[in-house]
Amino acid sequence: MRAQRLGWAPYALLLPSLAFLAVFFAVPMVRAFGLAFRDAGGDWTLASWRTMVDDAGFREALRTTLILIVLIIPVQFVLAMAMALVVNARLKWSGLWLYVYAIPLGISELAAGIIWLAIFDRQGWLNSILEGIGILDRPFIFLNYQERGWLIFAIVLAEAWRATSIIMIILVAGLQGIPRDFFEAADVFGATTWQKVRRVILPMLRPSVQVALILRTILAFQAFAVVIALAGSGTTVLSAEAYRWYYTIRDSHVAAAYAALILLLSVACTVLFLVLLPTREEQMG
Amino acid sequence: MAEIRLEGITKVFDKKVRAVDDVDLTVADQEFMVLLGPSGCGKTTLMRMIAGLEYPEHGRVLIGGRDVTDLPPRKRRIAMVFQSYAVFPHLTVFENIAFGLRMQRTPKAEVTRRVEGAADLVQLTPYLGRYSAQLSGGQRQRVAVARAIVMNPAVLLMDEPLSNLDALLRLTFRAELKRLVAELKTTTIYVTHDQVEAMSLGDRVAVMREGKVVQVGTPMAVYDRPATQFVGSFIGSPPMNFLRGRTERENGYARVHLGAEALTIPALPARTDGEVLVGIRAENVVAEATPTPGAIAARTEVVEPLGSHLLVTAIVGDQRLKIQARTDFPAQPDTPLWLRPEPDKLRWYDPATGQEIAAG
Q1: Are residues B190 and B267 in the same domain?
Q2: Which of B51, B90, B103 shows the shortest C-beta gap to A190?
Q3: A160 φ, ψ to 5°?
Q4: Which of B234, B264, B287 is the last residue of a domain?
Q5: What's CA A37's distance to the chain center, in Å?
Q6: Domain of B252?
Q7: Do B193 and B255 belong to one domain?
Q8: Does B290 touch chain A (CB under 8 A)?
Q9: Where are the domains of chain A?
Q10: CA distances from B347 to B17, B240, B317 (A)
């Protein structure tokens, strides 16, 4: 009844954001799919997809992307959970840690990649320090483009440093929504810290964990600048391949196929998390 | 055996607020002790220090002779019923009750047996498979109680467990709780701001004010002989009457002047002389419609019929007091009446400190 009295006003107010979404997200997405499934003449075809899959870089890119996701997300979740618990512990200065932890969020992805490049580079800080204290007598080449393991390790480290705090912030917000009585009840009824985390905090934090997982996985599929900065052409990921096909090879159809693939994988993961972590209403007090 | 002994417990918040101030209190094994006081008196903080959810700045907490002051809650053999119940929303009633046993890795068969036993005691058996959101407030309260008693704790702590229930349920649960705790014989500490609850449940009541315990005693003793003016006005409905008076001794008799009226009484506490506060409960004053020896003249101001009796507000000189009169008493506003306090029910307080002047 209220809606009736409001008339068209709510829809008019929604219009700017709808227009924004349509122009900058919906239209490009539809066009990207159009590019991916059509040839230069405008006929429907899977040729771009075949080119993408047959390309030498494809398997490497897909594999590295998935390896990064599998490595980064658990590491980040464990770290973010620990950080969130520190912030939420309300010890002396624990509020300060929220801001300290959030500092990397203010640094752009590319800048973060360059910072870590400066650390791991042949003449970088890590080598200078190790040489300075006498552990190495000549620089160790961490970012050896023949050694994918070291490259991936460096990327995981840089990504964990850069983007763990976004998960932490979601978890802190979730933790603060849980009344303290529940934690105290767990204490009184004999839970150790680990039991408290596993039996009370994580289950009650499930909605936040779900949001953070979805957000972080989607962002991991889009990882780009850190990979370029640290690995150069040493390894590649899906988004880097999309970039290469668009700017270097100048085939926008294959680039669009990569973009569409990233989108489909993101949607698949989102659905997976929604199914694996259902939030049943009767369980959410 | 689980006697609780608190020795010189002090808790200071933000370096200046003394929430609990040098409290000594002993709760006997199997005793039901109620901590009673207005909000902010420190009763909940005191209980949380017994639970290990807060740590005192000074003093010691002993449970069953063991110093637990620095131990975390899980090492104290306590269980607690929270005011909000804190029933875990992601667990069924069964798993909520089983929570503490699971934390101790109790064998499965024993968990089932004990949970079913506890659920039976609080009539939750049909609801064991439900989640908290599917329960009423009263049922959640029972889950919280069952989760605590299933642990066979040395000490059972209850923080205003009835305050979130509606008035009728509260009355039912009060009696139920009393029966349950009497059966279990667990040493219990119960925090409340409701003096009726405190009176009806406690073996003894510790009345707190501004972080200090002002009086400890059986409900009847605390009601009958309040140690301070505060206790007298906090416990009882209506509160105890306090009248300013002046005492005088004469040929073995004593007299209290209340304004223009004077009351002759057989004896006064030894230390009473001059100004006093006279305390008397409403039910310890007999109302008379005609002048009677030993009664003082007063005027009726308000008459409140309460079914079982009349609550009469009377004025003596310039002071008000509330008295209970039988329902057939012919009370009318603005008419005179005569009041005869039962001499052995008169209590004497120092007007400066509010402390009782001990009988002599």
Answers
A1: no
A2: B103
A3: -60, -40
A4: B234
A5: 27
A6: 241-349
A7: no
A8: no
A9: 65-251
A10: 33, 10, 20
| Same-domain pairing of B155 and B262 | no
Per-residue model confidence as pLDDT tens for chain B (360 residues): 589 999 999 999 988 888 999 999 999 999 999 999 999 899 999 999 999 999 999 999 999 999 999 999 999 999 999 999 999 999 999 999 999 999 999 999 999 999 999 999 999 999 999 999 999 999 999 999 999 999 999 999 999 999 888 888 888 889 989 999 888 899 999 999 999 999 999 999 999 999 999 999 999 999 999 999 999 999 998 999 999 998 887 777 788 888 888 888 877 776 666 888 999 999 999 999 999 888 899 999 999 999 999 999 999 988 999 999 999 999 889 999 999 999 889 999 999 899 998 764
Find the closest chain B residue to A284 by CA distance: B89
- Is A189 in contact with B88 (Cβ distance < 8 A)? no
B84 touches chain A (CB under 8 A): yes
HSE-CB for A224 with a 13 A CA cutoff: 13
CATH of the domain at B252: 2.40.50.140
* Nearest residue, CB atoms, A187 vs list B74, B102, B131: B74
Yes or no: say if B137 and B165 are a contact pair by the CB < 8 Å rule: yes
Claim to verify: residue B306 and residue B291 sit in the same structural domain:
yes
Is B134 near chain A, with CB under 8 Å?
yes
Q: Are B10 and B56 contained in the same domain? A: yes
**Domain final residue, candidates B201, B234, B267:** B234
Query: Is B72 inside any structural domain?
Result: yes
Backbone angles phi, psi at B78, to 5 degrees: -120, 165
Q: For B222-241, give the DSSP string.
A: HHHS-SBHHHHHHSSSSPPE
Within chain B, residue ranges assigned H as helices are 43-51, 93-103, 108-121, 137-149, 167-184, 195-201, 219-224, 229-234
CA-based nearest residue to B98, from B90, B110, B89 = B110
- B225 shares its domain with B273: no
- Evaluate whether residue B82 is within a structural domain: yes
**Distances from the Cα of B338 to the Cα of A32, B281, B350, angstroms:** 98, 16, 26
Contact check, Cβ <8 Å, B103/A192: yes
Q: Is residue B356 part of a domain?
A: no
CB B244 within 8 A of CB B277: yes
Average pLDDT (A100-119) is 89
Nearest CA in chain A to B93: A283
The answer on B275 and B225 residing in a single domain is no
CATH class for the domain made up of A65-251: mainly alpha
Q: Which stretches within chain A are classed as H helix?
A: 2-6, 9-21, 27-36, 47-54, 56-88, 94-102, 109-120, 125-132, 148-176, 180-188, 193-196, 202-204, 206-221, 225-231, 238-243, 252-276
The C-alpha of A184 sits at a distance from chain B's nearest C-alpha, in angstroms, of 7
Do B51 and A195 lie within an 8 Å CB cutoff? no
Helix (H, G, I), strand (E, B) or coil at B33: strand
Are the C-beta atoms of A186 and A195 separated by less than 8 Å?
yes
Residues B99 and B220 in one domain: yes
Here the tokens at position A88 are 């939420």
Structural domain count, chain B: 2
User: Closest-CA residue in chain A for B80?
Assistant: A188
| CB of A196 closer than 8 Å to CB of A183 | yes
Q: Note whether residue B355 is domain-resident.
A: no
